[in-house]
TrEMBL record:
Organism this protein belongs to: Streptomyces tsukubensis
InterPro entries: Thioredoxin-like_sf, Thioredoxin_domain
Region (Disordered): 1-25
Highest rank taxon of the organism: Bacteria
Annotated Thioredoxin domain residues: 40-121
Protein name per Swiss-Prot or TrEMBL: Thiol reductase thioredoxin
Source species taxonomy: Bacteria, Bacillati, Actinomycetota, Actinomycetes, Kitasatosporales
């Protein structure tokens, strides 16, 4: 997964080992629109015209099916501009790896390889 510098306030785990909380801002009245996984969630922001998004969808779905308690949630960036703006999503595909509590473990842009997704999940579970 291609790492992304996050100057938007959404940051990966810090020195204390705690993941930064990610998700809709408090009081904004938005939700993910689906249940998060019991152990981790792979959140994918996609657009209809994005070819790498299709391949990313297959990779994330395969990994989620392999690991119990992991959910894959695909969000259409055009339909969820509230989340796109709140999370400063600049391009698609963008993948967020969330832990069981919804904390951000890893954020990446571009099409990931399966081994990269599995490694990122290892940090979350």
């Amino acid at each position: 997964m291609v790492e992304r510098d996050t100057a938007d306030g959404v940051r990966p785990a810090g020195a204390e080992g705690k993941a930064a909380r990610v998700g809709p801002p408090a009081g904004a009245g938005v939700s993910w629109g689906a249940e998060l996984g019991g152990r981790a969630t792979l959140v994918q922001f996609s657009t209809a015209f994005c070819q790498p998004c299709r391949a990313t969808r297959r990779i994330l779905a395969d990994v989620a099916a392999m690991v119990p308690g992991v959910a894959h949630l695909e969000i259409d960036a055009e339909d969820r501009l509230d989340l796109v703006r709140a999370l400063s999503i600049d391009s698609t595909p963008t993948v967020l790896v969330l832990d069981a509590g919804g904390g951000l473990v890893r954020r990446a842009t571009g099409q990931p390889r399966k081994d990269q997704v599995i490694a990122a999940l290892g940090e979350a579970v």
